[in-house]
Amino acid sequence: MNQLYLFLLGVWLTGPVLAQTITLPEVLQLAQAQSVASKRASTQLRTNRWQFRSFLAQFKPQLSLDGTLPNFTRSYIQVVQPDGNIQFEPVSNNNSLLNLSLSQNIALTGGSIFVQKQLQRFDNFIQNNTLYNGIPFGIGIEQPLFQFNKMRWDRRIEPLLFAEGNQQFIENLEQVSLTATNLYFDLLVAQVNLQIAETNRTNNDTLYRIALHKLKLGKVSQNDLLQLQLGVLNAEKDLASARQTAAVATLKLKSFIGFRDEVNGQPSPLNLAVPNQIPGLVVDVKRALDEAFANRSAAIGFRRRVMQSTRDLEKARKNNGFNASLTAGYGLSNQGPSLGDVYVRPQNREYVTLQFTLPITTWGRARALVETAKADLELAQQTVEQDKLTFEQEIYTQVTLLQMLREQATLTAKADEIAQNRYQIAQDRFKLSDLSVTDLSIATQEKDRARRDAILALRDYWQAFYTLRLLTLYDFETNQKIK
Known about the structure:
Blueprint: H1 2-12, E1 21-22, H2 24-34, H3 36-57, E2 62-68, E3 72-80, E4 86-106, E5 111-124, E6 129-145, H4 150-217, H5 222-256, E7 262-263, E8 266-267, E9 271-272, H6 285-295, H7 297-318, E10 323-336, E11 347-357, H8 365-431, H9 437-472, E12 474-475, E13 480-481
Parallel strand pairs: 1-9
Antiparallel strand pairs: 2-4, 3-4, 4-5, 5-6, 6-10, 7-8, 10-11, 12-13
């Protein structure tokens, strides 16, 4: 791809006279390699990957060191005396704490276990003494009971979001191809119109000169001569308009694919090849549907949306009823005036805490929340079913449209060839004074219309072709998934 880019760059910079003819596949390669849209898609892909890595890291052991160092205080505090009076006593101390812990989340239960070491030092600067308190070893568990388990649901939903984001990246690149195809044919149609305008200007000028000679011989009327002269003026006007349209379309295409070049202050020309080699593929509707449901991010989104609504229903049920939280721990602890005392014959350290909440009267709030979540789940299921039908209909329509447009492109190509031959015959007959100016004008119009129709038919076909790729993320030419 880089070699293609350098080759095109070298050719385009040679000057406006030596314009390189570039094909549709080459434009699509450039668009996917360096357009702003493709770079934005790559950035979104990296964001999606880092978000998923951040999610996975939650279920790996977490080692942390936290503390308060220093924690110095110098002030006066009130002290209640035995007789009830208050006396303000001076304090000057430092109470520092360090805690080293290793924790592990448990997705199955929604809780976590941890191992810790802790050391605390207290300095009393007024009495000039120091005390140490520490936990040489401690292990504990924090476990929600009868509560909504967010971690378990995240383990099911986050991989779907990750897969959805990856497929969205491929879709974004295919959207880049489709947009580039539209801009390619906008320019191609403009170039064809420019060629038609240049040819008509030349032909009208030639026929007008021939008519001037025939007028002297009395073979054409003054009215026919004026009609040909008007044709020359209209051709000049159409040529100026076609040049402006082609220049704008060129800038749009180059801007989208991320290439801006100038030669002597003017944009270099860019000639496009007519992609008239239509692949003779026949797309099976069932195969297209199967690939779309297997590859599209929307298909993954169908499952993810229903799963998220199911999660919200469970959350509404469990967070509005009885729930509790258990915290328990075991370890060793000690204290003393020196640091070593903490580790000499430490004592057992145990604690158990059970906190609970039992709603007694909520005035229907809990039920309302549950019923709302149920309704949201039903709505999500119904919406997904409708979206699936629309999804399938879109694929079916696009496959049918592709086959029809393929036939249409073939027919318009034949009509274009016939119209060009007919115009040539009409032009020769006019030169021989065997055809009227009106009949020649009709032949010219039919020739131009047939040429435009042929290019527009090709544009419709290739737009449908790349739209089907976008809708299925499958390459039916090579029979393989787009990755």
